[in-house]
Design a protein that fits this description.
The protein is an all-alpha fold and about 70 residues long. It has a single domain, classed as Orthogonal Bundle (434 Repressor (Amino-terminal Domain)), CATH 1.10.260. About 55% of the residues lie in helices and about 0% in strands. α2 crosses α3. The two termini are about 20 Å apart.
Amino acid sequence: MNQVSIHEAKQLGEFIRGRRRELGLTQTEVAEVANTNLRFLSELERGKPTVRLENVLRVLATLGIELEARVR
Protein backbone atom coordinates (compact mmCIF):
# COMPACT_ATOMS: atom_id res chain seq x y z
CA MET A 1 0.00 0.00 0.00
CA ASN A 2 1.07 3.53 -0.65
CA GLN A 3 0.64 6.72 1.29
CA VAL A 4 -2.90 7.91 1.84
CA SER A 5 -4.35 11.02 3.40
CA ILE A 6 -6.86 10.20 6.10
CA HIS A 7 -9.26 12.87 7.31
CA GLU A 8 -11.84 10.89 9.26
CA ALA A 9 -12.17 7.77 11.39
CA LYS A 10 -14.05 5.84 8.71
CA GLN A 11 -11.18 6.28 6.25
CA LEU A 12 -8.69 5.01 8.82
CA GLY A 13 -10.87 1.99 9.51
CA GLU A 14 -11.16 1.16 5.82
CA PHE A 15 -7.41 1.50 5.39
CA ILE A 16 -6.73 -0.81 8.35
CA ARG A 17 -9.27 -3.37 7.09
CA GLY A 18 -7.72 -3.32 3.63
CA ARG A 19 -4.21 -3.86 4.99
CA ARG A 20 -5.36 -6.69 7.25
CA ARG A 21 -7.05 -8.44 4.34
CA GLU A 22 -4.03 -7.81 2.12
CA LEU A 23 -1.94 -9.68 4.69
CA GLY A 24 -4.52 -12.50 4.86
CA LEU A 25 -5.13 -12.03 8.58
CA THR A 26 -8.35 -12.37 10.53
CA GLN A 27 -9.53 -9.77 12.99
CA THR A 28 -8.93 -12.27 15.77
CA GLU A 29 -5.31 -12.81 14.73
CA VAL A 30 -4.59 -9.09 14.58
CA ALA A 31 -6.32 -8.42 17.89
CA GLU A 32 -4.25 -11.11 19.61
CA VAL A 33 -0.92 -9.89 18.26
CA ALA A 34 -1.81 -6.24 18.96
CA ASN A 35 -2.82 -7.18 22.52
CA THR A 36 -6.31 -5.77 22.14
CA ASN A 37 -9.71 -7.39 21.78
CA LEU A 38 -11.84 -8.33 18.82
CA ARG A 39 -14.55 -5.81 19.66
CA PHE A 40 -12.03 -2.96 19.61
CA LEU A 41 -10.61 -4.00 16.24
CA SER A 42 -14.09 -4.43 14.77
CA GLU A 43 -15.11 -0.95 15.94
CA LEU A 44 -11.85 0.53 14.64
CA GLU A 45 -12.38 -0.99 11.20
CA ARG A 46 -15.95 0.35 11.12
CA GLY A 47 -14.65 3.85 11.82
CA LYS A 48 -15.76 4.39 15.40
CA PRO A 49 -14.61 7.95 16.12
CA THR A 50 -13.73 7.36 19.77
CA VAL A 51 -11.02 4.76 20.24
CA ARG A 52 -7.94 4.55 22.45
CA LEU A 53 -4.95 5.90 20.57
CA GLU A 54 -2.63 3.49 22.37
CA ASN A 55 -4.58 0.54 20.95
CA VAL A 56 -4.75 2.09 17.47
CA LEU A 57 -0.97 2.46 17.43
CA ARG A 58 -0.50 -1.19 18.42
CA VAL A 59 -2.84 -2.31 15.62
CA LEU A 60 -0.98 -0.13 13.10
CA ALA A 61 2.37 -1.57 14.20
CA THR A 62 1.00 -5.11 13.97
CA LEU A 63 -0.06 -4.47 10.37
CA GLY A 64 3.21 -2.76 9.43
CA ILE A 65 1.59 0.65 9.05
CA GLU A 66 3.61 3.69 9.97
CA LEU A 67 1.74 6.77 11.15
CA GLU A 68 3.09 10.13 10.02
CA ALA A 69 1.84 13.62 10.75
CA ARG A 70 2.48 16.71 8.71
CA VAL A 71 1.43 20.31 8.80
CA ARG A 72 -0.87 21.35 5.98
